[in-house]
Amino acid sequence: MRRIKIGTRSSRLALWQAQFAASELKKFFPELEIELVKVKTTGDKILDAPLAKIGGKGLFTKELELQMEKGAIDLAVHSLKDVPTELPEGFRIAAITKRAQPFDAFVSNKFSSFDALPKNSVVGTSSLRRAAQILSLRPDLQIKNLRGNVETRLKKLDAGNFDAIILAAAGLERLGYSSRIGEILTEIIPAAGQGALAIETRAEDEEIFSLVQKLNDIETFAAAKVEREFLKEVGGSCQIPVGIFAEIDGDKIKIHALIASPDGKKIVRNFEVASLENVRGLGKKIAASLLNSGGREILKNIF
Prior knowledge:
The chain has helices at residues 12-28, 42-45, 51-54, 62-70, 128-137, 150-158, 169-174, 206-212, 218-234, 282-302; strands spanning 3-8, 33-38, 75-79, 91-96, 104-107, 122-124, 142-144, 164-168, 183-185, 197-202, 242-249, 252-260, 267-275. It is of the alpha/beta class. The protein folds into three domains: 3-98 and 196-216, 3-Layer(aba) Sandwich (D-Maltodextrin-Binding Protein, domain 2), CATH 3.40.190.10; 104-185, Periplasmic binding protein-like II (D-Maltodextrin-Binding Protein, domain 2), CATH 3.40.190; 234-302, Porphobilinogen deaminase, C-terminal domain (Double Stranded RNA Binding Domain, 2-Layer Sandwich). It is globular and about 60 Å long.
């Protein structure tokens, strides 16, 4: 019997993701014996600072890669939006799962919707991308940093620290918190890869690669490739105020993208529809368009 070890962070959401990957693999390979190995990452250890200030690249992936390198695990399951656009040598994304809900969710115990928030309401998020778009829509709101896993963030809301918080809807749905979602914020462009899971393996491990290929969703993989190409071109970090969402519709791909200043006062946007036959270099093309339309100046003023 083949035995494989899946590396995962120890949060409830990360464990759900790893267990999901394990159960999907078992559907194709019932004889597989699968063990989950919990690994603590830098992003899990530093919880008192915004992600943008402690560095966005590899915060949730580096330690898992070290374990793979040592042979302690065979593969790692990540939220795709946490995976750097460039992996260290010797690793590859072997599969991307079918995307779940890609958008952010509005959660509040006091107000039914984002528009219902009174002036000066305190909104919690750890993401510059979310903060910038929230402020562009509602400059009258106050943004307060919110870190921690899904349960921790909900507890902080329930303790009265915030009037509302903004989280990835997929995480709430996966953990059974759909009832907490007041509204899906389709007007806020998500992070590259949001809602999808990435399976990372050692580049030379063909046996594991062939196993996890069964979990790869071709449409999500194609959309994510455009999104990650765009992200790489504009800076490569998931912690800069940029968003992109690519959606496949028949033989077309539709892409919404933006670069914003952290205060939301300056935003450049792009909407593109292309044939699936012409996706090569599309992420780079959209990035160049936004950078040349004022995005480069916006990003230069942030760092």
